[in-house]
């Protein structure tokens, strides 16, 4: 038996001891985070799956793992199909599967600190329909059998300079207090780690690649805030930074504190606060309302200081990426380099800036067939040599104090095939369609998603992920609420109106299973645009591209580009040269200039 089969067997034994017939294991933490600390990596420990979204259900006689279209290949590579059935979402839901597979009288366990109230209601109803019961456990059974489970991080919080944030914490908390007045509420519970970091202008190191700290916060109607965090993580400088209006409590005091709001009206976000929080508030006699976390939109609409920080980070990061891309072209053609060595080289290029805090996510360094796995994660076991005839895809980003970056480029190793050039150019056409889009204020991301797909659709092709995600300011690389995505792709419809100030990625792609992958990703800033001759009373928006790095010209079939598309590409490359040229020198600068030379018909 494999170690994962052994772990599955151990969990089943524990469930029997706990009087449970099944248990649900999500990939999240008690803050509903996308990326979680090592202590919360229960799904990976149990199954071997290393993606960033998934759930397992374990019952006595069967088990299943649920992943979306981004991980169709990866989950089959990493999880034993003899142990788990593969179930695709959103075509199938965990609750629906439970309703079909649980037996009459079954007791299915869940950890109320790892699921939303909506999920609990859905699963409970599905199980009740077949005479089964959903049971909240007092202790997570996975933790009981995970003998070497890591402890939560003890990393200290650090103050985030108001000069980088563009607004001090007191002003942010005053805005939340105004929002509470509008909601006729006495307090709001903040559980999302990036919401807390943004509100208090603090950063941490408790989650890989995301500078946040494990904490909860409750903001009152006067702006005064109770912060629940491991006291060992707070030093005098952070205490002084937070000020007298932020009261610090031990993190373990959070759950008991929820019982102290009897008769008060308390807000909690149903998508970000777990079911246990709603239960504790209700049991304590609070009147619970469920609007969206008020920080979410405020954080998404960047102020001028944050935008300027992103622009500065983009120059620094673009120069590092350019040095790396030249290295790929000049070094990787003989098969001596691998996905891991290339990822290490790019990290070294970013570290050489002297300002890198961390990568913004685990670098996707993928050659050949691995590039067809959108969220591929290279390991020692999967590490492949970068060989001639392949496309090499690198999706990566950096965390800098002034901004978070995320960029994808593709480089041919040797001569690309005509098909590769055709597909790359169609992806580029879709990328340009988003970059040049003009749309009315209030347009939702889902309305423009098809712009990126039309050149592929015309050839009977598509890609199985969203076109764009929001991004934080030295925070989470994936930040809502804005997205560019169609309803039938992971995450569902992108229904948040796009607003001036939002940052979002522009990343269409194409993936040929077993052969290669293509994705072109830049970050863009949503701005107000003036359309000559347009209705002066109608506010129109568009995008200003922030990312600066050459788009590989040998993969472009210029005959497929319209005059307008070619004009955009040449103008983009001229801007890349103008801004990055002075930052680079010698062979790096000469290489950049050659890559950004205007393309003629």
Automatic annotation (TrEMBL):
Belongs to the peptidase M24B family. Keywords: Aminopeptidase, Hydrolase, Metal-binding, Protease. InterPro entries: Creatin/AminoP/Spt16_N (IPR029149), Creatinase/aminopeptidase-like (IPR036005), Creatinase_N (IPR000587), Pept_M24 (IPR000994), Pept_M24B (IPR033740), Peptidase_M24_C (IPR032416), X-Pro_aminopeptidase_P (IPR050422). Residues 312-525 form the Peptidase M24 domain. Residues 540-599 form the Peptidase M24 C-terminal domain. Residues 7-138 form the Creatinase N-terminal domain. This is Aminopeptidase P family protein. The lineage of its organism: Bacteria, Pseudomonadati, Pseudomonadota, Alphaproteobacteria, Sphingomonadales.
């Amino acid at each position: 038996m494999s170690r994962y089969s052994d772990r599955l067997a151990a969990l089943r034994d524990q469930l029997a001891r706990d009087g449970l017939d099944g248990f649900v294991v999500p990939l999240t933490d008690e803050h509903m985070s996308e990326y979680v600390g090592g202590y919360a990596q229960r799904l990976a420990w149990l199954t071997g799956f290393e993606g960033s979204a998934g759930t397992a259900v374990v019952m006595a006689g069967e088990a299943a793992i649920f992943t979306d279209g981004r991980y169709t290949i990866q989950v089959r590579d990493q999880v034993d199909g003899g142990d788990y059935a593969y179930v695709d979402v959103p075509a199938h839901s965990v609750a629906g599967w439970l309703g079909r597979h649980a037996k009459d009288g079954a007791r299915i366990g869940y950890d109320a600190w790892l699921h939303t109230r909506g999920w609990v209601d859905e699963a409970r109803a599905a199980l009740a329909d077949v005479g089964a019961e959903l049971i909240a456990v007092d202790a997570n059974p996975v933790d009981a059998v995970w003998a070497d489970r890591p402890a939560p991080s003890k990393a200290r919080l650090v103050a985030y300079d108001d000069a980088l944030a563009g607004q001090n914490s007191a002003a942010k908390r005053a805005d939340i207090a105004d929002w509470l007045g509008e909601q006729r509420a006495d307090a709001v519970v903040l559980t999302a780690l990036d919401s807390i970091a943004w509100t208090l202008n603090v950063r941490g190191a408790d989650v890989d690649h995301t500078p946040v700290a494990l904490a909860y916060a409750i903001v009152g109607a006067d702006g005064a805030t109770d912060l629940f965090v491991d006291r060992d993580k707070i030093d005098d400088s952070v205490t002084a930074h937070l000020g007298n209006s932020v009261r610090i409590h031990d993190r373990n005091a959070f759950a008991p504190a929820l019982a102290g709001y009897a008769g008060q009206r308390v807000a909690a976000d149903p998508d970000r606060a777990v079911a246990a929080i709603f239960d504790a508030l209700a049991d304590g006699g609070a009147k619970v309302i469920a609007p969206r976390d008020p920080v979410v939109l405020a954080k998404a609409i960047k102020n001028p200081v944050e935008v300027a920080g992103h622009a500065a980070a983009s120059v620094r990061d673009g120069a590092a990426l350019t040095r790396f891309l030249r290295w790929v072209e000049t070094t990787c053609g003989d098969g001596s380099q691998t996905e891991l060595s290339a990822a290490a080289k790019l990290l070294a290029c970013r570290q050489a800036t002297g300002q890198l805090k961390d990568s913004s996510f685990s670098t996707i360094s993928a050659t050949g067939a691995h590039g067809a796995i959108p969220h591929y994660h290279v390991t020692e076991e999967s590490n492949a040599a970068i060989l001639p005839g392949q496309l090499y895809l690198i999706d990566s980003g950096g965390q800098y104090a002034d901004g978070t970056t995320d960029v994808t480029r593709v480089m041919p190793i040797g001569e690309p095939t005509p098909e590769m050039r055709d597909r790359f150019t169609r992806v580029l056409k879709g990328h340009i369609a988003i970059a040049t889009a003009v749309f009315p204020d209030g347009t939702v991301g889902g309305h423009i998603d098809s712009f990126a797909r039309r050149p592929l659709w015309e050839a009977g092709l598509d890609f199985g992920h969203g076109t764009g995600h929001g991004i934080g300011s030295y925070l989470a690389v994936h930040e809502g609420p804005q997205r560019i995505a169609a309803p039938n792709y992971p995450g569902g419809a992108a229904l948040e109106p796009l607003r001036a100030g939002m940052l979002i990625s522009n990343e269409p792609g194409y993936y040929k299973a077993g052969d290669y992958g293509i994705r072109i990703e830049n970050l863009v800033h949503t701005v107000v645009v003036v359309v000559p001759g347009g209705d002066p009373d109608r506010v129109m928006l568009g995008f200003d591209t922030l990312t600066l790095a050459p788009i590989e010209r040998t993969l472009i079939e210029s005959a497929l580009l319209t005059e307008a598309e070619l004009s955009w590409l040449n103008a983009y490359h001229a801007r890349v040269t103008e801004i990055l040229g002075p930052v680079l020198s010698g062979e790096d600068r000469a290489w950049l200039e050659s890559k950004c030379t205007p393309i003629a018909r």
